[in-house]
Design goal:
The complex is a heterodimer.
Chain A: E1 2-13, E2 17-29, E3 34-39, H1 45-52, E4 60-65, E5 68-69, H2 74-79, E6 81-85, H3 96-106, H4 111-125, H5 140-152, E7 158-162, H6 170-185, E8 189-194, H7 197-203, E9 206-211, E10 214-219, H8 221-228, H9 233-240, H10 243-252
Parallel strand pairs in A: 3-8, 3-9, 6-7, 7-8
Antiparallel strand pairs in A: 1-2, 1-4, 4-5, 9-10
Helix pairs in contact in A: 3-4, 3-5, 5-6, 8-9
Chain B: H1 3-18, H2 21-55, E1 58-64, H3 69-77, E2 81-84, H4 90-95, E3 101-105, H5 109-115, E4 122-124, H6 130-157, H7 178-187, H8 189-216, H9 218-223, H10 229-267, H11 276-286, H12 292-319, H13 323-345, H14 361-371, H15 377-402, H16 405-408
Parallel strand pairs in B: 1-2, 1-3
Antiparallel strand pairs in B: 3-4
Helix pairs in contact in B: 1-10, 2-8, 2-10, 7-14, 8-10, 8-12, 8-13, 8-14, 10-12, 12-13, 12-14, 12-15, 13-14
Classes of the chains: A alpha/beta, B mainly alpha.
Chain lengths: 253, 411
């Protein structure tokens, strides 16, 4: 489970001064559910998820992930989180097997457990053919599979996905979507950020719309449709952020 | 601090680096092959060039001398000299290396000689040009011996002994043992080389493990793991240090082996020869040996400096967003490192308490002393302690930078 309370993160920017990348965000993600964080570019999705994954420290507010506090128990949080983002790459000079083993070792797993889980993940993700090849020679799909295996090697209770389909071709993106669903079906807590409306409709049980660092609307798709009197998520999104003008202004900064 | 994590990170970085061509080149290949190339390559090329220059006759233009047939004949009779007819201005001929030098014999030189008048022979040479210098030396030698003969004949004409103008002889005798001679000759160069290699060995791993990781997007992946940042820094830092030390040790080993091989090659199995002892003695002056204890002392002194280099390079590269940016920060640092190392190479600069606190320069100076068998323990202690202090500060700073979000996520 993920529980964020008044999470705030500010940055100092040379041009813009103090920027509130995440502004007083409170949200709850339940196990067995996919929480979709929907926002335009620069809305604060990545920062919010990096805070939950303890890659960044909050300026104020707090959050617990899998029962651990992100500030005082950061290492425990990371031991329970699988973080997959478009920006989390693979070590090109390692093979897929070495990559998975390395993260298994960093997670404190024994060699026997790593071997057994690597075998199982390779079966599930159909990775045997390229398991002992170097990652820098991989196709996008192979890279995605290896990254997924990397996030799953320690069998985390919470999965955090930050725009995982960014820049992927249709097949690779579909594989990711399928994998995210499987995570939910296995009872994991899943938070998924994207700016692609169709992915949210397809995947997410609960939707949070983030704009200028603030969570401006939250609910199931049905609840949001009722609240904004719109059927289409894109229309709901534009209304939630205060209209097209507000969105354009935000995108400019 | 979790040593298991540190070792895991270190071993992964080691494996990764051994698969990186740039790191391999700077930490293993260059240090291993640089010394043999310098010792054999440069040495043999130099000696070949010198030998050739000595064997070739000295070409020269003689200006005047038509009324001094005796001297002209003596010059022509000398096998080492080849007199060329002037085709243009003699200065131009010397400048354009058509001849090594021009000799000007004043008018009526032989007549003046007989009359006991002092005249001047002018040698026009090209300063700094090796062949011209050699030629001028030989011609000067020729005229010196002519002068000596003239003096001797004048003395004997007056019934005086040669000893009159040479009341005593002056001779030099070396008392320094061969390894100390080696220390003095190599003492400046070896520390310089070690400092340069220590730095260049750490350079590529440092950039690859920080800015390189950021650029390739693996830094964020690594930060997702439940390993404390301190452990990540230390694991990576030890890899950078490994690069630095391996560059230094490999260069020392290959230097030792090359020097030994070169010594064997030049001396041969000298023992067989009757003049073996003399020959060997002669050769040790050319191929200086190095005091082993001094060398071990140098390695001990270099260790904290390698830590300092590794930590500083790590921190600077960590700040960069990309490998290219890191390179532009690190490259100018080479000069910052090389300069004090070069100053240390200069003769006449000796250690004092203030210089003992100057990083790099202190190492260069103390190594020079240790290799020539001088052990100033108070300075050695001061340098060792101050170097470790600087290294610890630099490493602490590296850890601090790694914990800064604005550095690690700088984009």
């Amino acid at each position: 489970m993920i529980e964020a309370r008044h999470l705030t993160k500010t940055f100092k920017d040379k041009k813009r001064g103090v920027v509130k990348a995440v502004d007083n965000v409170s949200l709850t993600c339940q196990p067995g559910q996919i929480y979709g964080l929907l926002g335009a570019n620069g809305a604060g999705k990545t920062t919010a998820l990096r805070l939950l994954a303890t890659l960044l420290q909050p300026t104020s507010g707090s959050a617990t992930v899998a029962g651990c506090d992100i500030s005082s128990e950061a290492q425990k949080v990371r031991a329970n989180v699988g973080f997959l983002a478009a920006s989390t790459a693979l070590y090109g000079r390692l093979t897929a097997r070495e990559m998975i083993r390395y993260f298994g070792e960093l997670n404190g797993l024994t060699t026997a457990v790593i071997r057994e889980r690597t075998q199982r993940l390779a079966d599930q993700l159909d990775m045997h053919e390229f398991l002992d090849r170097r990652c820098d020679k991989f196709s996008t799909g192979m890279k995605q599979k290896t990254s997924i295996a990397r996030t799953l090697i320690h069998d985390p209770a919470v999965m955090i996905f930050d725009e995982p389909t960014l820049g992927l071709d249709v097949m690779a993106a579909r594989a990711i979507v399928r994998f995210v669903r499987e995570c939910r079906d296995r009872g994991k807590t899943v938070i998924y950020s994207t700016h692609v409306m169709s992915e949210v409709v397809k995947l997410c049980d609960y939707i949070g719309i983030i704009h200028c660092g603030r969570l401006v609307a939250e609910g199931t798709l049905v609840e949001l449709q009722a609240r904004f009197a719109e059927q289409d998520l894109e229309e709901i999104f534009v209304k939630a952020v205060g209209g097209e003008a507000a969105l354009t202004a935000a995108l400019k900064t | 601090m979790n040593w298991k994590h540190i070792v895991t990170v270190y071993l992964k970085e080691l494996k990764d680096s051994l698969r990186d061509r740039r790191t391999l080149l700077s930490t293993i290949i260059i240090p291993t092959f640089l010394m043999p190339v310098i010792i054999f390559g440069t040495g043999s090329v130099m000696s070949k060039v010198m030998k050739k220059a000595r064997e070739e006759p000295t070409t020269m233009v003689v200006l005047g001398g038509s009324d001094s047939p005796g001297i002209m004949a003596a010059l022509k009779a000398e096998k080492k000299f080849k007199i060329v007819e002037p085709t243009m201005d003699y200065k131009k001929m010397v400048s354009e290396k058509q001849v090594r030098l021009a000799v000007e014999i004043p008018e009526g030189f032989e007549a003046s000689l007989k009359a006991g008048e002092a005249r001047t022979i002018m040698l026009y040479h090209y300063e700094g040009e090796m062949k011209s210098g050699l030629g001028a030396g030989e011609v000067e030698g020729f005229f010196r011996s002519l002068r000596d003969k003239t003096v001797e004949s004048r003395l004997s004409e007056r019934g005086l002994s040669v000893g009159l103008i040479k009341p005593f002889e002056i001779k030099r005798q070396n008392v320094a043992p061969p390894e100390k001679v080696g220390g003095n000759m190599l003492g400046g160069f070896v520390p310089y080389l070690i400092i340069a290699l220590c730095f260049s060995g750490a350079m590529y791993p440092a950039m690859d493990l920080t800015a390189g990781e950021k650029e390739r997007g693996t830094m964020e992946t690594l930060l997702c793991s439940p390993v404390a940042r301190l452990d990540l820094v230390l694991g990576k830092f030890f890899m950078v240090l490994t690069g630095s030390l391996s560059a230094m040790l490999l260069s020392l080993i290959s230097m030792g082996l090359s020097a030994a091989a070169a010594g064997m090659m030049f001396v041969g199995s000298g023992a067989r020869l009757a003049a073996a002892a003399n020959q060997t003695k002669g050769m040790t002056a050319v191929m200086p040996t190095i005091d082993l204890v001094g060398l071990l002392g140098v390695i001990a002194m270099v260790l904290p400096v390698a830590v300092l280099f590794s930590a500083v390079l790590f921190t600077v590269s960590l700040f960069a967003k990309s490998y290219k940016e890191a390179q532009s920060y690190v490259t100018p640092m080479i000069f910052v490192v090389i300069l004090p190392a070069m100053i240390g190479m200069l003769p006449g600069i000796d250690l004092n308490a203030r210089l003992a606190l100057m990083p790099i320069l202190n190492l260069s100076l103390v190594c020079k002393e240790m290799l020539s068998g001088v052990w100033h323990w108070n300075y050695i202690g001061l340098i060792f302690a101050s170097s470790w202090l600087y290294a610890a500060i630099a490493l602490g700073f590296a850890v601090k930078m790694f914990n800064r979000e604005d550095v690690i996520f700088r984009a």
